Backbone:
């Protein structure tokens, strides 16, 4: 499991994480939501060891991430698969080369075995026989699925999804959500999904954590999310910008009065 205790992180004068506490159970799909700039991606970078907190701790399978050496971090990251927001495929490589990159660089497998695994993972995400295509020849949804095949290539225990449906049309977004849900069940991996897409939240989440002002403000399942009457949570979930518009309108009125 993943355990985060009193995690704090400051960049200059800006305090991004102000004491995050969260436990992610083995095998569950945890979805992290919240407004832009609330610290979701920063939290994810702490989990995978790209950032170290100023205070607090992050443990994966009981191991303290912040005190690991570079070699120990490399070792534990073999348990991780990561789907980047923009898929992050290498344009100069074929699809097959992209998916097999970690296998080729880190595992010393034969080319025959790598090709076998690549074909298996592409078929798993619904894209068989496209190994020789280039990323530029693929649609946005196909690139996302190739990125997911690459994340799955090493048979990770944890998969991290950073905005997996951003930039996709509703039909393709639903296809990606279905894939995330089905893979979680089929492979029994622990999944952490960062998203602004509320439809995705209800489709894939076992539990939801909402970040607000640098802390976990809400934690519960989809039923809890649907039924909560907390105004901050409802404002985000219902996409209600009323309060922000009202504040901006008041500022504009005051500015006009000052000019007069």
Residues:
């Amino acid at each position: 499991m993943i355990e985060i205790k009193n995690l704090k992180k400051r960049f200059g004068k800006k305090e991004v994480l102000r004491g995050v506490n969260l436990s992610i159970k083995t095998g569950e799909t945890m979805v992290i939501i919240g407004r832009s700039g609330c610290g979701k991606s920063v939290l994810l970078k702490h989990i995978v060891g790209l950032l170290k907190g100023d205070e607090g701790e992050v443990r994966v399978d009981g191991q303290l991430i912040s005190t690991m050496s570079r070699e120990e971090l490399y070792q534990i990251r073999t348990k991780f698969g990561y789907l980047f927001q923009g898929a992050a495929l290498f344009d100069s490589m074929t699809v097959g080369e992209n998916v097999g990159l970690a296998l080729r660089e880190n595992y010393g497998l034969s080319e025959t075995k790598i090709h076998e695994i690549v074909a298996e993972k592409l078929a798993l995400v619904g894209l068989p026989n496209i190994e020789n295509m280039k990323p530029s020849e693929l649609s946005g949804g196909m690139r996302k699925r190739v990125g997911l095949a690459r994340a799955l290539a090493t048979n990770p225990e944890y998969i991290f999804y950073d905005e997996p449906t951003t930039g996709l049309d509703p039909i393709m977004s639903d296809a990606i959500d279905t894939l995330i849900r089905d893979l979680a069940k089929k492979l029994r991996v622990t999944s952490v999904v960062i998203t602004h897409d509320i439809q995705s939240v209800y489709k894939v989440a076992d539990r939801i954590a909402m970040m607000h002002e640098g802390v976990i403000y809400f934690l519960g399942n989809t039923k809890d999310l649907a039924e909560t009457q907390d105004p901050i949570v409802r404002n985000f979930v219902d996409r209600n910008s009323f309060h922000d518009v009202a504040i901006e309108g008041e500022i504009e009125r005051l500015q006009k009065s000052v000019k007069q």
